[in-house]
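Supplementary Note 3. Input sequence used for the single-chain structure prediction.
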Amino acid sequence: MRSVSRRLTAALEGPGGLRDVLAIAYPLILGNVSFTLQNFLNRLFLTWYGADAVAGAVTGAFVNWVFLGFFIGTGEYLTTFVAQYLGAGRPRRIGPAMWQGVYFAVLAGLLVLGLRPLLGPVFALAGHAPAVQAYEVSYTRTLAFAALPSVLFATLSSFFAGRGETRTLLLVNIASTGTNALLDYCWIFGHLGFPRAGVVGAALATVVSQSLGAGTLLVLMMQRRHRQAYGTASGWRLDPRLFLRLLRYGLPSGLQFSLEVLSFTLFLMLVGRIGTAELAASGIAFNLNSFVFWPMLGMGIGVASLVGRYLGAERPEVAERATHSAFAMSLCYMSLCGLVYVLLPDLLLRPYAAGADPQSLRAILPIARVLLRFVAVYSIFDMMNLIFAFALRGAGDTLYPLLASVGLSITVMLVPTYLACTYLGYRHGGIYVAWSLASAYVVAQGLVMGRRFQKGAWKSLRIIDREAPQAPRFIDREPEPAN
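The predicted structure, written as discrete structure tokens, is reproduced below.
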């Protein structure tokens, strides 16, 4: 018993231990849980609104994330810049780095708005039912107005995540999520004086809530203590070299995220060719999967922050320990979630049936019940991908994960899924063959990222320019500010 106790204490304590990782990651995890709840309520309300509405919104959301995910993934890469500058004892470079992200967010928002006229032809290519196509187009065109605040929200979050001030992010995320949930209820169904706007109302709720979150973080970043310590006001000028450095390392990271979303968007479009029930069931399964994915994304951001700061402080062995600590905790969480998916599927699906038309769900729920078993299996490997890919990202290794993700998605998932959905159909189990292929892609990606991390080449990488430190080097983590 004493030996077990000593091992547990050793795992918990010290730089890179379980406690060190949790101190930074738990607010990010809880913040992403709130975001997950927001998406769950959004799709739950739309399920009550109509099967065509939720099918169109799910596909529309994936298409939106193809474009938006690219810019958000790039802007969020500032977490690594902030972390490495802090670890290297150069906090005054953080403000100028953040302002490059602000300019990038503005540019991204304008570019996404410029793509709105193309959305109609894109959804027409999918060949979905006319009612579903109408919802897809109206939802995504409205959601395009959320691009600027969404990218800005994610970019400004890097200032707090990279320094370990994650409780602030938790509070802002909760406020944004609460606003979105309330507006969803009012705008989708027409309550409290709002018009009954369906999927358009759901998209407008996202625009408002993301604007609230981004505005709040900008105000907080410009507080006096941050202006003095990190130059958040004096560093407002465009710095071409720093901006290009952000693009050099951030674009592969953003492109990887965007292409992964594109892969699953194409996957959903292919599934939609089998039938609306199969598409809606896949949307519900992905929605329930988000309860696992988004918390792990918070853990991944925490890992990237710690790896970046420990590498900036020239302590790669502690960065490796922090990653392994995060993996151990995430494995326990994922195993429990997998059991719930397998043993209690009806409990998870019950909320969808509470306010929906029983006739429309009769064909959907049996399929969704089976799809949750696929989710239970691939979620463990999805966690591996997140933890190790974010650790590589915290070091600056972003090109290899991009190339691996693209290659695997095409060869393992998309081409075989096209053949399955085109030539098999539902009667011959096409939906389950397609999900088997998607699961194989996630499994392969997790194994590849784990192998890349174990090779250890990332330990010698740095993304910041080399200069003499301006302040004492980071040791463990920056303490939370006093309230």
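The radius of gyration is 22 Å. The CA atoms of residues 242 and 274 lie 48 Å apart.
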